[in-house]
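User: For documentation purposes, I need each entry recorded in a consistent format: the amino acid sequence on its own, followed directly by the corresponding C-alpha coordinates. There are two entries in this batch. Please keep commentary to a minimum and don't merge the entries.

Assistant: Recorded as requested. Entry 1:
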Amino acid sequence: MSENTSVIMPGERVRVVEDAAKNKRVILGPGLRRLDDKVVASKAGPLRHKDPNTFWVDNYQRRYVPARGDLIIGIVKARVGDLYRVDIGSADTAAISYLAFEAATKKNRPDLNPGDLLYARVLNANADIEPELVCVNSNGKRGKLGVLQDGFFFKCSLNLARLLLRESCPALAALTDELPFEIAVGVNGRIWVKAHSMRETVGLANAIMSLEQAGYAEIDKICGDLNSVMQT
Protein backbone atom coordinates (compact mmCIF):
# COMPACT_ATOMS: atom_id res chain seq x y z
CA MET A 1 0.00 0.00 0.00
CA SER A 2 1.22 3.46 -0.86
CA GLU A 3 1.96 5.61 2.19
CA ASN A 4 0.57 8.82 0.74
CA THR A 5 0.84 11.45 3.48
CA SER A 6 -1.23 14.19 1.80
CA VAL A 7 -4.10 15.26 4.05
CA ILE A 8 -7.37 16.23 2.41
CA MET A 9 -10.40 18.03 3.82
CA PRO A 10 -14.15 17.55 3.29
CA GLY A 11 -15.28 19.12 0.03
CA GLU A 12 -11.78 19.17 -1.42
CA ARG A 13 -11.38 17.98 -4.99
CA VAL A 14 -8.98 15.01 -5.16
CA ARG A 15 -7.23 15.42 -8.48
CA VAL A 16 -4.72 12.60 -7.98
CA VAL A 17 -7.63 10.13 -8.01
CA GLU A 18 -9.20 11.84 -11.00
CA ASP A 19 -5.90 11.53 -12.88
CA ALA A 20 -5.67 7.82 -12.05
CA ALA A 21 -9.25 7.31 -13.29
CA LYS A 22 -8.29 8.60 -16.73
CA ASN A 23 -6.19 5.50 -17.38
CA LYS A 24 -8.06 2.80 -15.44
CA ARG A 25 -11.17 2.12 -13.42
CA VAL A 26 -10.67 3.13 -9.78
CA ILE A 27 -12.49 2.04 -6.62
CA LEU A 28 -13.47 4.81 -4.21
CA GLY A 29 -13.41 3.73 -0.58
CA PRO A 30 -14.60 5.50 2.59
CA GLY A 31 -14.17 9.27 2.58
CA LEU A 32 -14.36 9.73 -1.20
CA ARG A 33 -17.32 10.21 -3.50
CA ARG A 34 -17.92 11.01 -7.14
CA LEU A 35 -19.79 14.15 -8.18
CA ASP A 36 -20.32 14.12 -11.93
CA ASP A 37 -16.79 13.92 -13.35
CA LYS A 38 -15.11 15.02 -10.10
CA VAL A 39 -13.84 13.08 -7.08
CA VAL A 40 -14.47 14.91 -3.81
CA ALA A 41 -13.48 14.14 -0.21
CA SER A 42 -16.32 13.66 2.27
CA LYS A 43 -14.03 13.21 5.30
CA ALA A 44 -10.79 14.69 6.59
CA GLY A 45 -7.61 12.63 6.82
CA PRO A 46 -4.63 11.21 4.91
CA LEU A 47 -5.36 9.95 1.40
CA ARG A 48 -4.45 6.26 1.08
CA HIS A 49 -3.90 4.12 -2.00
CA LYS A 50 -3.76 0.35 -2.40
CA ASP A 51 -2.55 -1.13 -5.68
CA PRO A 52 -3.82 -1.40 -8.22
CA ASN A 53 -6.72 1.02 -8.06
CA THR A 54 -8.27 1.58 -4.60
CA PHE A 55 -8.29 4.96 -2.86
CA TRP A 56 -9.76 6.02 0.49
CA VAL A 57 -9.40 8.57 3.29
CA ASP A 58 -7.87 7.21 6.50
CA ASN A 59 -10.32 8.95 8.81
CA TYR A 60 -10.77 8.06 12.48
CA GLN A 61 -14.46 7.29 12.80
CA ARG A 62 -16.60 5.34 15.20
CA ARG A 63 -19.31 4.05 12.88
CA TYR A 64 -18.55 1.91 9.87
CA VAL A 65 -19.80 3.12 6.48
CA PRO A 66 -20.01 0.24 3.97
CA ALA A 67 -18.11 0.47 0.69
CA ARG A 68 -18.10 -1.92 -2.25
CA GLY A 69 -15.36 -4.56 -1.93
CA ASP A 70 -14.94 -4.26 1.85
CA LEU A 71 -14.20 -7.43 3.80
CA ILE A 72 -16.39 -7.41 6.90
CA ILE A 73 -17.43 -9.60 9.82
CA GLY A 74 -21.18 -9.66 10.28
CA ILE A 75 -23.57 -11.17 12.81
CA VAL A 76 -26.64 -12.96 11.47
CA LYS A 77 -29.76 -11.41 12.99
CA ALA A 78 -32.72 -13.06 11.25
CA ARG A 79 -33.95 -14.84 8.14
CA VAL A 80 -36.49 -13.07 5.94
CA GLY A 81 -37.62 -15.14 2.97
CA ASP A 82 -34.60 -15.96 0.82
CA LEU A 83 -32.44 -13.37 2.62
CA TYR A 84 -30.60 -13.15 5.90
CA ARG A 85 -30.35 -9.86 7.78
CA VAL A 86 -26.81 -9.24 8.99
CA ASP A 87 -25.51 -6.71 11.51
CA ILE A 88 -22.29 -5.20 10.09
CA GLY A 89 -21.96 -2.29 12.52
CA SER A 90 -23.30 0.32 10.11
CA ALA A 91 -26.41 2.48 10.35
CA ASP A 92 -28.39 -0.14 8.42
CA THR A 93 -28.35 -3.92 8.51
CA ALA A 94 -27.04 -5.71 5.43
CA ALA A 95 -28.66 -8.50 3.44
CA ILE A 96 -27.20 -11.71 2.05
CA SER A 97 -28.98 -14.20 -0.17
CA TYR A 98 -28.76 -17.93 0.47
CA LEU A 99 -27.38 -18.16 -3.09
CA ALA A 100 -24.38 -15.98 -2.14
CA PHE A 101 -22.57 -19.02 -0.71
CA GLU A 102 -20.41 -21.60 -2.50
CA ALA A 103 -22.43 -24.43 -4.08
CA ALA A 104 -25.69 -23.08 -2.67
CA THR A 105 -28.94 -24.06 -4.43
CA LYS A 106 -32.62 -24.08 -3.51
CA LYS A 107 -32.16 -27.61 -2.18
CA ASN A 108 -28.75 -26.99 -0.64
CA ARG A 109 -29.12 -23.86 1.44
CA PRO A 110 -26.60 -22.70 4.05
CA ASP A 111 -27.58 -23.53 7.62
CA LEU A 112 -27.39 -20.10 9.25
CA ASN A 113 -28.76 -19.18 12.66
CA PRO A 114 -29.08 -15.90 14.57
CA GLY A 115 -25.77 -15.12 16.23
CA ASP A 116 -23.60 -16.85 13.61
CA LEU A 117 -20.54 -14.90 12.48
CA LEU A 118 -19.96 -14.35 8.77
CA TYR A 119 -16.79 -13.27 7.01
CA ALA A 120 -18.17 -11.63 3.89
CA ARG A 121 -17.51 -9.07 1.18
CA VAL A 122 -19.68 -6.05 0.47
CA LEU A 123 -21.09 -6.48 -3.04
CA ASN A 124 -23.16 -3.29 -3.24
CA ALA A 125 -23.38 -0.24 -0.99
CA ASN A 126 -25.01 3.11 -1.57
CA ALA A 127 -27.23 5.55 0.26
CA ASP A 128 -30.47 4.39 -1.33
CA ILE A 129 -30.50 0.63 -0.64
CA GLU A 130 -29.33 -1.66 2.12
CA PRO A 131 -25.80 -3.11 1.73
CA GLU A 132 -25.60 -6.47 -0.03
CA LEU A 133 -23.07 -9.14 0.99
CA VAL A 134 -21.58 -12.23 -0.63
CA CYS A 135 -19.50 -15.11 0.72
CA VAL A 136 -17.90 -16.10 -2.59
CA ASN A 137 -15.32 -14.56 -4.89
CA SER A 138 -15.74 -13.75 -8.58
CA ASN A 139 -15.19 -17.44 -9.41
CA GLY A 140 -17.95 -18.62 -7.08
CA LYS A 141 -15.47 -20.03 -4.53
CA ARG A 142 -15.62 -19.25 -0.84
CA GLY A 143 -11.89 -18.93 -0.19
CA LYS A 144 -11.62 -17.54 3.35
CA LEU A 145 -15.20 -16.30 3.37
CA GLY A 146 -18.15 -17.93 5.09
CA VAL A 147 -19.25 -18.89 8.61
CA LEU A 148 -16.60 -18.45 11.32
CA GLN A 149 -16.70 -21.41 13.68
CA ASP A 150 -15.62 -21.32 17.35
CA GLY A 151 -12.71 -18.94 18.00
CA PHE A 152 -12.87 -15.59 19.81
CA PHE A 153 -14.65 -12.51 18.47
CA PHE A 154 -13.95 -8.94 19.57
CA LYS A 155 -14.29 -5.38 18.34
CA CYS A 156 -11.65 -2.76 17.65
CA SER A 157 -11.42 0.70 16.12
CA LEU A 158 -11.83 1.04 12.38
CA ASN A 159 -8.28 2.41 12.19
CA LEU A 160 -6.78 -0.68 13.83
CA ALA A 161 -8.70 -2.92 11.43
CA ARG A 162 -7.27 -1.03 8.46
CA LEU A 163 -3.78 -1.22 9.97
CA LEU A 164 -4.03 -5.00 10.21
CA LEU A 165 -5.31 -5.29 6.64
CA ARG A 166 -2.27 -3.49 5.23
CA GLU A 167 -0.14 -5.85 3.19
CA SER A 168 2.99 -4.30 4.71
CA CYS A 169 1.71 -4.48 8.33
CA PRO A 170 4.25 -6.50 10.37
CA ALA A 171 1.88 -7.29 13.25
CA LEU A 172 0.36 -10.51 11.95
CA ALA A 173 3.74 -11.76 10.71
CA ALA A 174 5.22 -11.12 14.17
CA LEU A 175 2.38 -13.04 15.82
CA THR A 176 2.74 -15.93 13.37
CA ASP A 177 6.37 -16.27 14.48
CA GLU A 178 5.09 -16.98 18.00
CA LEU A 179 2.34 -19.54 17.31
CA PRO A 180 0.02 -20.77 14.52
CA PHE A 181 -3.44 -19.25 14.40
CA GLU A 182 -6.37 -18.31 12.17
CA ILE A 183 -7.65 -14.76 11.87
CA ALA A 184 -10.34 -12.82 10.05
CA VAL A 185 -10.18 -9.03 10.11
CA GLY A 186 -13.22 -7.01 9.11
CA VAL A 187 -12.71 -3.45 7.95
CA ASN A 188 -15.82 -2.71 10.01
CA GLY A 189 -13.78 -2.96 13.22
CA ARG A 190 -14.37 -6.61 14.05
CA ILE A 191 -11.81 -9.35 14.49
CA TRP A 192 -12.07 -13.14 14.90
CA VAL A 193 -9.09 -15.23 16.03
CA LYS A 194 -8.61 -18.92 16.74
CA ALA A 195 -5.53 -20.70 18.11
CA HIS A 196 -4.94 -24.20 19.54
CA SER A 197 -6.20 -23.31 23.01
CA MET A 198 -8.41 -20.65 24.58
CA ARG A 199 -5.39 -19.30 26.50
CA GLU A 200 -3.46 -18.77 23.28
CA THR A 201 -6.53 -17.30 21.58
CA VAL A 202 -7.10 -14.74 24.35
CA GLY A 203 -3.39 -13.95 24.35
CA LEU A 204 -3.60 -13.22 20.63
CA ALA A 205 -6.54 -10.89 21.20
CA ASN A 206 -4.62 -9.03 23.93
CA ALA A 207 -1.60 -8.65 21.67
CA ILE A 208 -3.71 -7.28 18.83
CA MET A 209 -5.54 -4.84 21.09
CA SER A 210 -2.18 -3.51 22.34
CA LEU A 211 -1.83 -1.99 18.87
CA GLU A 212 -5.04 0.04 19.30
CA GLN A 213 -3.34 3.37 19.86
CA ALA A 214 -0.49 2.74 17.43
CA GLY A 215 0.01 4.78 14.29
CA TYR A 216 1.73 3.76 11.09
CA ALA A 217 5.11 4.87 12.45
CA GLU A 218 4.76 3.22 15.90
CA ILE A 219 3.45 -0.19 14.94
CA ASP A 220 6.88 -1.55 13.93
CA LYS A 221 8.28 -0.82 17.41
CA ILE A 222 5.34 -2.40 19.22
CA CYS A 223 5.56 -5.57 17.13
CA GLY A 224 9.01 -6.26 18.57
CA ASP A 225 7.44 -6.71 22.01
CA LEU A 226 4.27 -8.62 21.12
CA ASN A 227 5.54 -11.83 22.72
CA SER A 228 5.59 -10.24 26.17
CA VAL A 229 2.05 -8.94 25.69
CA MET A 230 0.81 -12.44 24.85
CA GLN A 231 2.21 -13.79 28.09
CA THR A 232 0.28 -11.33 30.25
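Entry 2:
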Amino acid sequence: MPEHVQERKPKISASRKLMLKSLMVAKAKEELEQEILVKEEEKQKYLAEKAPPLNTSSLSLAQLQDLCRELHEKVDVVDEERYDIEAKVMLNTREIKDLNIKVLDLRGKFKRPNLRRVRVSADAILRSLLGSKHKVSMDLRANLKSVKKEDTEKKRPVEDSDWRKNVEAMSGMEGRKKMFDAAKGPAQ
Protein backbone atom coordinates (compact mmCIF):
# COMPACT_ATOMS: atom_id res chain seq x y z
CA MET A 1 0.00 0.00 0.00
CA PRO A 2 1.39 3.40 -0.88
CA GLU A 3 2.08 5.56 2.14
CA HIS A 4 1.56 8.86 0.35
CA VAL A 5 -1.96 9.09 -1.03
CA GLN A 6 -2.85 12.19 -2.97
CA GLU A 7 -6.03 13.91 -1.88
CA ARG A 8 -8.57 14.35 -4.63
CA LYS A 9 -9.52 17.84 -5.52
CA PRO A 10 -13.26 18.40 -5.85
CA LYS A 11 -14.48 18.91 -9.38
CA ILE A 12 -16.74 21.77 -8.28
CA SER A 13 -15.52 24.55 -6.02
CA ALA A 14 -17.30 25.31 -2.75
CA SER A 15 -18.69 28.62 -3.96
CA ARG A 16 -20.06 26.95 -7.10
CA LYS A 17 -21.71 24.23 -4.96
CA LEU A 18 -23.30 26.87 -2.74
CA MET A 19 -24.61 28.78 -5.75
CA LEU A 20 -26.09 25.59 -7.26
CA LYS A 21 -27.75 24.67 -3.96
CA SER A 22 -29.31 28.12 -3.64
CA LEU A 23 -30.61 27.89 -7.24
CA MET A 24 -32.09 24.45 -6.56
CA VAL A 25 -33.82 25.70 -3.41
CA ALA A 26 -35.22 28.73 -5.28
CA LYS A 27 -36.51 26.48 -8.11
CA ALA A 28 -38.12 24.08 -5.61
CA LYS A 29 -39.79 27.02 -3.84
CA GLU A 30 -41.24 28.30 -7.13
CA GLU A 31 -42.58 24.84 -8.03
CA LEU A 32 -44.15 24.49 -4.59
CA GLU A 33 -45.91 27.85 -4.94
CA GLN A 34 -47.18 26.87 -8.42
CA GLU A 35 -48.45 23.56 -7.07
CA ILE A 36 -50.35 25.36 -4.30
CA LEU A 37 -51.95 27.70 -6.85
CA VAL A 38 -52.97 24.78 -9.08
CA LYS A 39 -54.58 22.97 -6.13
CA GLU A 40 -56.48 26.11 -5.15
CA GLU A 41 -57.78 26.52 -8.73
CA GLU A 42 -58.90 22.88 -8.82
CA LYS A 43 -60.68 23.36 -5.52
CA GLN A 44 -62.52 26.44 -6.82
CA LYS A 45 -63.55 24.59 -10.01
CA TYR A 46 -64.87 21.64 -8.00
CA LEU A 47 -66.85 23.88 -5.65
CA ALA A 48 -68.31 25.84 -8.57
CA GLU A 49 -69.37 22.57 -10.19
CA LYS A 50 -70.78 20.88 -7.08
CA ALA A 51 -72.23 23.95 -5.31
CA PRO A 52 -73.26 26.69 -7.72
CA PRO A 53 -73.99 30.10 -6.15
CA LEU A 54 -77.58 30.51 -4.98
CA ASN A 55 -79.79 33.33 -6.25
CA THR A 56 -82.44 33.74 -3.53
CA SER A 57 -83.44 37.36 -4.09
CA SER A 58 -86.20 36.68 -6.66
CA LEU A 59 -87.71 33.55 -5.04
CA SER A 60 -91.02 33.39 -3.21
CA LEU A 61 -91.50 31.75 0.20
CA ALA A 62 -92.64 28.42 -1.29
CA GLN A 63 -89.70 28.35 -3.69
CA LEU A 64 -87.28 29.08 -0.83
CA GLN A 65 -88.77 26.20 1.18
CA ASP A 66 -88.35 23.88 -1.81
CA LEU A 67 -84.76 25.06 -2.21
CA CYS A 68 -84.07 24.38 1.49
CA ARG A 69 -85.53 20.87 1.14
CA GLU A 70 -83.31 20.19 -1.88
CA LEU A 71 -80.25 21.45 -0.01
CA HIS A 72 -81.10 19.27 2.99
CA GLU A 73 -81.41 16.24 0.71
CA LYS A 74 -78.02 17.02 -0.83
CA VAL A 75 -76.49 17.43 2.63
CA ASP A 76 -77.94 14.05 3.66
CA VAL A 77 -76.50 12.39 0.56
CA VAL A 78 -73.08 13.93 1.20
CA ASP A 79 -73.19 12.84 4.87
CA GLU A 80 -74.00 9.28 3.81
CA GLU A 81 -71.10 9.29 1.36
CA ARG A 82 -68.78 10.69 4.02
CA TYR A 83 -69.88 8.02 6.50
CA ASP A 84 -69.33 5.27 3.91
CA ILE A 85 -65.90 6.61 3.05
CA GLU A 86 -64.93 6.83 6.74
CA ALA A 87 -66.06 3.23 7.25
CA LYS A 88 -63.94 2.10 4.29
CA VAL A 89 -60.95 4.03 5.62
CA MET A 90 -61.34 2.45 9.07
CA LEU A 91 -61.61 -1.00 7.50
CA ASN A 92 -58.51 -0.37 5.38
CA THR A 93 -56.47 0.91 8.34
CA ARG A 94 -57.47 -2.15 10.38
CA GLU A 95 -56.48 -4.40 7.48
CA ILE A 96 -53.16 -2.56 7.12
CA LYS A 97 -52.46 -3.06 10.83
CA ASP A 98 -53.23 -6.78 10.55
CA LEU A 99 -50.98 -7.12 7.51
CA ASN A 100 -48.17 -5.26 9.30
CA ILE A 101 -48.49 -7.66 12.22
CA LYS A 102 -48.33 -10.62 9.83
CA VAL A 103 -45.22 -9.17 8.19
CA LEU A 104 -43.58 -8.72 11.58
CA ASP A 105 -44.51 -12.30 12.51
CA LEU A 106 -42.96 -13.62 9.32
CA ARG A 107 -39.79 -11.67 9.95
CA GLY A 108 -39.59 -12.91 13.50
CA LYS A 109 -39.39 -9.46 15.04
CA PHE A 110 -42.04 -8.61 17.55
CA LYS A 111 -42.95 -5.30 19.10
CA ARG A 112 -42.99 -5.78 22.81
CA PRO A 113 -46.07 -4.20 24.37
CA ASN A 114 -45.76 -2.12 27.49
CA LEU A 115 -46.50 -4.53 30.30
CA ARG A 116 -48.11 -3.54 33.56
CA ARG A 117 -47.60 -5.25 36.88
CA VAL A 118 -50.72 -7.05 38.02
CA ARG A 119 -51.09 -8.71 41.38
CA VAL A 120 -52.77 -12.05 40.82
CA SER A 121 -53.18 -14.85 43.34
CA ALA A 122 -52.21 -18.42 42.58
CA ASP A 123 -55.89 -19.39 42.55
CA ALA A 124 -56.66 -16.76 39.90
CA ILE A 125 -53.76 -17.96 37.73
CA LEU A 126 -54.90 -21.59 37.98
CA ARG A 127 -58.50 -20.56 37.26
CA SER A 128 -57.43 -18.66 34.14
CA LEU A 129 -55.24 -21.54 32.92
CA LEU A 130 -57.50 -24.47 33.79
CA GLY A 131 -60.89 -22.79 33.58
CA SER A 132 -63.71 -24.62 35.36
CA LYS A 133 -61.49 -27.66 36.05
CA HIS A 134 -59.77 -25.80 38.90
CA LYS A 135 -61.68 -26.59 42.09
CA VAL A 136 -59.05 -27.01 44.80
CA SER A 137 -57.69 -23.83 46.30
CA MET A 138 -53.96 -23.76 46.49
CA ASP A 139 -52.81 -23.39 50.07
CA LEU A 140 -49.08 -22.77 49.98
CA ARG A 141 -48.71 -23.13 53.75
CA ALA A 142 -50.10 -26.67 53.71
CA ASN A 143 -47.02 -27.96 51.91
CA LEU A 144 -44.58 -26.48 54.41
CA LYS A 145 -42.74 -28.70 56.84
CA SER A 146 -44.08 -28.52 60.37
CA VAL A 147 -41.54 -27.97 63.13
CA LYS A 148 -42.23 -29.18 66.65
CA LYS A 149 -41.16 -27.01 69.56
CA GLU A 150 -40.19 -30.03 71.64
CA ASP A 151 -37.40 -30.95 69.21
CA THR A 152 -35.79 -27.53 69.45
CA GLU A 153 -35.92 -27.50 73.24
CA LYS A 154 -34.26 -30.93 73.51
CA LYS A 155 -31.33 -29.87 71.35
CA ARG A 156 -30.35 -26.99 73.63
CA PRO A 157 -27.65 -27.77 76.16
CA VAL A 158 -28.71 -27.84 79.80
CA GLU A 159 -25.85 -25.54 80.85
CA ASP A 160 -27.28 -22.55 79.00
CA SER A 161 -30.67 -22.88 80.64
CA ASP A 162 -30.08 -19.94 82.99
CA TRP A 163 -28.05 -17.36 81.16
CA ARG A 164 -27.85 -15.00 84.18
CA LYS A 165 -25.70 -17.41 86.15
CA ASN A 166 -23.33 -17.81 83.23
CA VAL A 167 -22.95 -14.02 82.87
CA GLU A 168 -22.29 -13.54 86.60
CA ALA A 169 -19.74 -16.36 86.61
CA MET A 170 -17.82 -14.92 83.67
CA SER A 171 -17.79 -11.32 84.91
CA GLY A 172 -14.71 -9.79 86.48
CA MET A 173 -11.19 -11.18 86.59
CA GLU A 174 -12.26 -14.64 87.71
CA GLY A 175 -14.30 -15.13 84.54
CA ARG A 176 -11.39 -14.10 82.39
CA LYS A 177 -9.10 -16.42 84.31
CA LYS A 178 -11.54 -19.31 83.70
CA MET A 179 -11.61 -18.57 80.00
CA PHE A 180 -7.81 -18.36 79.93
CA ASP A 181 -7.48 -21.61 81.81
CA ALA A 182 -10.06 -23.30 79.57
CA ALA A 183 -8.16 -22.24 76.49
CA LYS A 184 -4.83 -23.31 78.02
CA GLY A 185 -6.11 -26.62 79.44
CA PRO A 186 -6.64 -28.67 76.30
CA ALA A 187 -3.23 -27.65 74.95
CA GLN A 188 -1.37 -29.31 77.88
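Summary note for entry 2:
The chain is about 65% helix and 0% strand.
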